[in-house]
Amino acid sequence: DKGEYRHYMLKEIYEQPKVIKATMEGRITATRVLEQALGTDAENLLENVRHVQIIACGTSYHAGMVARYWIEDLAGVPCSVEVASEFRYRKHVIQPDTLFLCISQSGETADTLAALRQAKKAGFRAALAICNVPGSSLVRESDLVIMTQAGPEIGVASTKAFTTQLTALLIFTLALARHNGLNAEREADIVKAIHLLPGQVNDVLALDGEIEEMSKAFMDKNHSLFLGRGSQYPVAMEGALKLKEISYIHAEAYPAGELKHGPLALVDSEMPVVTVAPNNDLVEKLKSNLEEVRARGGELFVFADKAADVKPEEGLHVMQIPSVHEITAPIVYTVPLQLLSYHVAVLKGTDVDQPRNLAKSVTVE
Ligand code: F6R
């Protein structure tokens, strides 16, 4: 039931504070991750993991891309991420003591399951699933399961599944990191930041009206560019995917530093450029990227931390996002991009919940 909402997608975007909270519940205390809550075998299976191989498709793949930044940063464990359809059809090497991590909302995505089944033959330490559907094939075939508590996701464009996947992945990363020397102080710092997420996502939802206003600038455009650096690069990828899926506007995501290596040639006044820029050590670099775009007449839409001091100017629209912890920032910054795509699609009159040519669960190749 959509209730008061016009579309399931909007309802699901607004459910995020609640479902993110549900996904952390019982898995963290005020300052620590409860490893037992990830499974009775978790402690044993996470000990001696030397490599993490993440496999997923679409939005779930973007969650995996964010997780790679976390896993290498916090746990210091090498991590590879690949889309399932590529992994399963190439000759791949699985390193010793690999944790094989599949991420899937439905748990029935054919390519992801095929990759898992193949990898089982090659051998790995353990298979971990991050999944939203209890009893799904993925859940049944994995050694360790962290359920996202998003509840049924009806809109084809994934929203609350993604942010709950990220929440689960961050909690998992902290558990893995504890086996690899993460100190209690840093763990507490990040766990406290996780507790702040529902409130922060609520604060971003309060920007809905402003984002709706901003969406008008995209209505008659055919192309757009999304930029991000570090763990916000996959957030830019996810933002671009949402826009193309439901508004049918061509959207491409680039790591901001790649701009000058090609895509800058495309930038003109017909190419809006969306940038996610939290206040971290990359923001200064990002600012110079923004100058490159503006110098070419490109119109910029920047979602920036209040503290990052990006000032609006002619051709530079700034949406101020409340200050958040650098580690949890990808979760918070996903939300304004979801709202942006949603409003552009509504303005264009597309079928938001059932975009053309797409199915909710891709159980065939
Ligand atoms: C995007 C979207 C798809 C899915 C992909 C994987 O909004 O919904 O890209 O993310 O088909 O599906 P799951 O996560 O069910 O394996």
Automatic annotation (TrEMBL):
Cytoplasm listed as a keyword: yes
Keywords: Aminotransferase, Cytoplasm, Glutamine amidotransferase, Repeat, Transferase
EC number: 2.6.1.16
A GO MF term: carbohydrate derivative binding
Top EC class, one word: transferase
Summary of subunit composition and partner proteins: Homodimer.
Protein's name according to its UniProt entry: Glutamine--fructose-6-phosphate aminotransferase [isomerizing]
Organism of origin: Marinobacter excellens LAMA 842
Lineage, opening ranks: Bacteria, Pseudomonadati, Pseudomonadota, Gammaproteobacteria, Pseudomonadales
Full protein segment contained here: 246 to 610 of 610
